[in-house]
Design a protein that fits this description.
Blueprint (H helix, E strand, L loop, with lengths): L3 E5 L6 E5 L14 H11 L4 E5 L5 E4 L1 H7 L4 H4 L10 H15 L7 E6 L5 E13 L2 E10 H54 L5 H29 L8 E4 H11 L1 H7 L1 E5 L4 E4 L1 H17 L7 E10 L2 E8 L31 H11 L4 E5 L5 E8 L2
Parallel strand pairs: 9-11
Antiparallel strand pairs: 1-2, 1-6, 3-4, 3-7, 5-6, 6-7, 8-10, 11-12, 12-14, 13-14
Helix pairs in contact: 5-6, 7-9, 9-10
Length: 390
């Protein structure tokens, strides 16, 4: 038995593949070029069912995936069959017309077609066909993929995505409700601790005063934590209302809002010419405020904070930078600082809840951007974030 030749016709490249059927010459025989053996291995190990048949539909070759799909026990068994035996009768005429078009050189788009397996089951497959030469004669090669399994996978992934979205929304609702409902008992604790201090404080010793001050301080901190948690959980509920924003004006507004802390901490803020961007003004203001306030807060003791706000266009994005000459951050903590409630310093050293950067990260990501930091300890920090150019 002579080996047959199967030529793959492609728009750019024609691949010649020789399948050795003669048992007297093993596939590993060195007489055959290595690239042809590679192509043979590619088809033999393909997850797609690949069948070659003649113009009348007689099956000439089926790869292992095709044998598995249809239930054939061997290639010899498959070759006793016709491709039309696997098609519903109402599809036979259309299949013959398509075969003729492919033989004439036409390129047909993939189609979804029902086929019958040997056990009688009917499944849907995605079919692609092209003309090949089989032992010097024109033939049709078809690639088939079980579209039912593919559709099931797509449907399963879609359900998982919907489930994750629903779970995230429920968790955000729970976080918001929990933060809101916990505010009242915290307010009561602080209020009554302060009243106790005012009304009965004269009869307390120093240790009792210290206890009351600790209760009040802890209650106020809890109040701030709950506020930030509520704010964080509401970010995804906030509908993005994008508009053109002159970030020069926005930064001036932010600096005006935090004017008092800047004066008290001796900070000097400069900016270069900033662009007009398309974003949600309320949320973008929060980002600038968080980053500028952080730059002020983590200044070097006894030295005026030098802060610069700048921007440049890069790869269809605006890259904003807020740089300072403060205490800096070790690279070991670059990932940690953007997580909720993560702090590198005690509240007594630097006030705050550790939510500012995580809130900023979520806002920027909702706008399709990124946020990161460059820093060295005692050498200041540069916080970058990007916004797409729209």
């Amino acid at each position: 038995m002579k080996p047959y030749r199967c030529v793959y016709e492609r728009p750019i490249l024609t691949l010649a593949v020789r399948f050795m059927q003669d048992t007297r010459i093993p596939p590993s025989q060195p007489n055959y070029p290595e690239n042809e053996l590679n192509y043979q291995a590619l088809i033999e190990h393909s997850s797609d069912a690949i069948i070659v048949h003649d113009p009348q539909g007689k099956i000439l070759y089926a790869n292992p995936a095709a044998l598995t799909l249809f239930g054939d026990t061997s290639l010899e068994e498959a070759r006793k069959n016709s491709i039309f035996n696997h098609l519903p009768k109402e599809f036979t005429k259309g299949a013959r017309e398509s075969i003729q078009k492919v033989l004439e050189g036409a390129t047909l788009p993939p189609v979804i077609s029902p086929v019958y397996l040997l056990n009688g089951d009917r499944i849907e497959v995605e079919v692609r066909a092209n003309r090949v030469d089989f032992d010097g004669q024109p033939a049709i090669q078809i690639h088939m993929r079980d579209s039912f399994s593919r559709a099931k996978l797509i449907e399963s992934l879609k359900r998982q995505a919907e489930d994750l979205k629903r779970i995230n929304e429920e968790l955000e609702d729970i976080s918001h409700i929990a933060a809101h409902d916990l505010q009242e008992p915290v307010r009561m604790i602080v209020t009554f601790a302060q009243r106790l201090e005012q009304e009965k404080g004269a009869s307390f010793d120093a240790e009792s005063h210290r206890y009351l001050q600790t209760i009040t301080k802890s209650g106020l901190r809890m109040h701030q934590l709950l506020n930030d948690l509520s704010r964080y959980s509401r970010l995804n509920m906030h509908e993005l209302r994008k508009e053109d924003i002159d970030t020069n004006i926005l930064v001036e507004q932010v600096v005006g809002m935090i004017h008092s802390p800047i004066s008290g901490m001796e900070a000097r803020i400069t900016r270069n010419s900033l662009p007009v961007v398309r974003a949600d003004p309320t949320l973008l203001r929060i980002v600038f405020q968080n980053l500028i306030e952080n730059a002020i807060k983590f200044h070097r003791p006894g030295k005026e904070a030098q802060i610069e706000v700048s921007a440049k266009s890069l790869n269809a994005e605006w890259n904003f930078s807020i740089s300072d000459d403060g205490i800096g951050i070790s690279p070991n903590y670059f990932g940690k600082i953007f997580k909720p409630f993560e702090r590198l310093h005690s509240p007594d050293s630097y006030p705050g809840t550790g939510m500012g950067l995580s809130i900023s990260k979520r806002i920027i990501e909702r706008h399709g951007g990124r946020i990161w930091v460059e820093s060295e300890e005692e050498k200041g920090s540069i916080f970058h974030f990007t916004l797409p150019v729209e």
